[in-house]
Amino acid sequence: MDVNFSCITYNVRGIRQKVKRVKIFNYIKDKLKNGFAFMQETHSDQNVTSLWKNEWGGDVIFNHGESNSRGILIAFSENFEFKLLQNLSDNEGRILLVSIEHNNRKFLLVNIYNDNVEQKQVILLKKVTEMMGNIDDILDHEIIMGGDWNFIFDKKFDAEGGSPLLKLSSIAEVTKIVEQFDLCDIFRVRYPDKKRFSFRQPNPRRSRRLDYFFISNSLQDSVLNSDILTSLSSDHSPVLVSFDDTITESKGSSYWKFNSLLLKNPEICAEIIDVIKKTKREFESIDPQLKWELVKYKVRCVCIDASKRLAKEKKRRTEIL
Questions:
Q1: What is residue 303's predicted lDDT score, i.e. its pLDDT?
Q2: What is the number of other CB atoms lying within 10 angstroms of the CB of residue 20?
Q3: How far, in Å, CA of 227 to CA of 279, rounded?
Q4: Which one of 7, 64, 137, 295 has the lowest number of neighbouring Cβ atoms within 10 Å?
Q5: What pLDDT score does 309 carry?
Q6: Which residues of the chain have pLDDT under 50?
Q7: For residues 188 and 181, what is the distance between their CA atoms, to the nearest angstrom?
Q8: Measured distance CA(304)–CA(46) in Å, rounded
């Protein structure tokens, strides 16, 4: 069956105040049209469940948590038809997994509001992996995982201003999730060199891409659009992914695979060997599994950069000829 819907992830930074809540709900519904929205930092509790559902107009699944600085939800547009199969959440208002059936296809929706502290991020991400393993027939699901991840993958393209740091343990843990469940960062796949940010801080001025979607690689050909939208009443911006596999034209590059032809280039081989050695030295005392994930991440970065250089050089030579 065809996939034809949109999804949005948005850290709304508290929507208990009615004017702000209604404004954000209307803004999201206008952009969404048909689909579902992941929201983080909702500051919800049991007392607002019915009221917020009525104001939204469609079904809403909550994870309130135990702190007014947390809370997440998944809100479905009124015209989105689905059957709820399973619903799992943590006790802190940070993780929400919803298994649904839509158009005779199973989807696992994973909404994450990550911690700021790297050590706690790793614990949370391990918990996500554990919870995903508790989903019935997980291999029959196509996965859409989004949220506020609170870390970046690339200093050059995901950050501007300040002194950005890579939380390598968090990156390694997400890399394991991506590989285990065959996912991709769809925005970065479509726009490998684009600098777009979903979080902005005015003083001191800095911008980061902290909000993004990972989706099943099997869904890539169905992606019509991936974009970061204009923010409304939050220091985060909504991130949108639209799916429509009824459109047949090419939609961009596929997910990254290692290009074995790079190994025929001695200079690139030297770069790969060098980054492996440096990573092993830098993280000599850490857990071997974590070290392996970081080595794969570093090699991937080298290969992507090398492929871009080769493509540019090929283009330059073609233009000269």
A1: 85
A2: 16
A3: 33
A4: 137
A5: 83
A6: 248-254
A7: 18
A8: 47
Helix (H) or strand (E) holding 147: strand 141-148
Beta strands 60-63 and 35-40 are unpaired
Q: Which residue in 41, 42, 59, 37 sits closest to 50, CA to CA?
A: 59
Three-class DSSP category at 245 = coil
| Cα–Cα separations (whole angstroms), residue 9 to 48, 208, 226 | 21, 15, 12
Q: Which two tokens mark 123?
A: 């614990």
Q: CB–CB of 115/175 below 8 Å?
A: no
- What are 217-249's pLDDT values in tens digits? 889 889 999 999 999 999 999 999 999 987 644
- Report the C-alpha gap between 192 and 242 in whole angstroms: 18
Q: Is 145 helix (H, G, I), strand (E, B) or coil?
A: strand
Please tell me the pTM assigned to this model.
0.82
Task: Pull the structure tokens for residue 73.
Answer: 């939800």
Order across the sheet with 239-244: list the strands.
Answer: 60-63, 72-76, 35-40, 4-11, 239-244, 223-228
154 token code pair: 């690339």
What would the two tokens of residue 108 be? 């696992």
